[in-house]
Amino acid sequence: MNHYDLARQIRRNLQPPPGVHGPWQFGEVATLDTTSGTVGVYLDNSPGGDGAAITSGIPYLDSYSPYVGDPVLVARMVGAGRSQRVVICSMGGSGTGGPRGRLNATGQTVAATATAQKVTLANVDINNGNIDALGFSSKIVIDEAGCYLVSACAGWQNSGGAVAAGRYMTMIYVNGAEVRRAEEDINASGFPVVPVSDIMNLAVNDYIELYVYQTSGVNQATQGDTHQTWLSAVKLNSSGGGTAAVSFGSPVEIGTALADGSAATSARSDHVHSGLGQPIGLTGATAATRFVGGTTSGAPASGTFAVGDFVIDQSGSAWVCTTAGTPGTWTQMGGGGAAVPDVVQVAEAWNTATSVTIAAASSGHSLIMVTNSTTGQVTSPSCTNVTWTQLLTHTSAGAFYAIWVGVVAGGSSGTTITMTKPGSFNTVVVLEVPDSLTPVAGTTGHQSTLNGVPFATDLLRVTGCTAGRLVVFAAGEDNTTQNTLITPNVPSMGIFSTVNGIAMAVGYVSGSVASLFSQGSVGASLICEVY
After folding, report:
1. How far apart are CA 518 and CA 485, in angstroms?
2. Has this prediction a pTM greater than 0.90?
3. pLDDT at position 258
4. Which pLDDT band, with edges at 50, 70 and 90, does 46 fall under?
5. Is residue 249 one of the residues assigned to a domain?
């Protein structure tokens, strides 16, 4: 297959934006100039027809080792006329040995039947590397496992003339089963040409075939032109070329991305290209880092991560792994502060509460509740689709405090939380967060203060927290004639001031310390880190 055919095939199969003025072009490496770090590329410059032209002096990235014959993706730079170009990656194996194969048809009759028909592909265009393009059996057999760009096309005619109206399909079969198809509906007579392509992970001895199907009601024929009916496969990320796979609609990798997150080496010791999400690697900034995905809220709670891995949650906060592990230790990025939890709702019940009314909480969310009773601890909290766990308790001069976490699962929660209070007094505060908590208590702290003394102050401080975890801050009041005001050391949401109840807030700890400053008529202060 000549350069013109390859440029045209790349354009058709990968469907780049129409027109020479788009941001991308595809072509084939024709010449090398390793001194200047440039290549000459046959570019497809004809959006409406066939043909290719060579453009010399196109630079390429350090991580790409070019070979003559490589199909490449060329980026057109922003600027006047968009004349500056750069080769950003190869679309397959090296031009000197990357597995690739192509078969074309001689034309055959296709009956209007209810089943697909295999196309006879007797002519071998390309057959190099660890791949077998077998014309005698009309299939391409894989000899080297990996990720492949598989493309096919079927052109249609009827005794040299236009085909009748109907649906015309091109299908790629792997190991005798359909894996991808494309189709075109012809409302009037015409000459449909139907291409299809996909990126596939193929194993040794997998075989690829071209099938077609048509619904015109009469016999039709595929065209025997080598530019119209064919099947091809080219291995992506082939050894020897140092190149990476490109999948449109999927992340594009440039260079060699290492699984452990370490920086790959290249021709220049001060300039390292690895995959997108990997560091560029300029001098002074070569430590490993990877963008590993996202979370709904907060740092990952499961999985194994390396130092330098980072995620972005759906609240807009970014988190970086500072200690490798499962899930490792994470710190929230940006100004050194922590994200503010999304509190969905807050509800209270005062003095003699045996229940509290809430809006139905969503499945997967968590309810955090603080109770303050007399005589003994509140027991047996209950709410539909909520499982409750008592994480922390404290007794202060006849007042019994507790922090509870309820996990909502199996559907939305009920709208009433009931509980048993042992004495005549009980005050309850509950809030809902979208976090799916375990729940297990991490670092905790609690202490009594100057009970009933107006304007008393109290500072509770705990160490050993894990950055990114949710922390509950609470303070109870023993003198109902004075306000209680709490100030956590991290950005928080909740009830910060109360006249005759419980002040409670939640926040994500940004380091290893969580502290709570309470002021007013404070009976006790509590801090509880939650997994």
Report:
1. 6
2. no
3. 37
4. very low
5. no
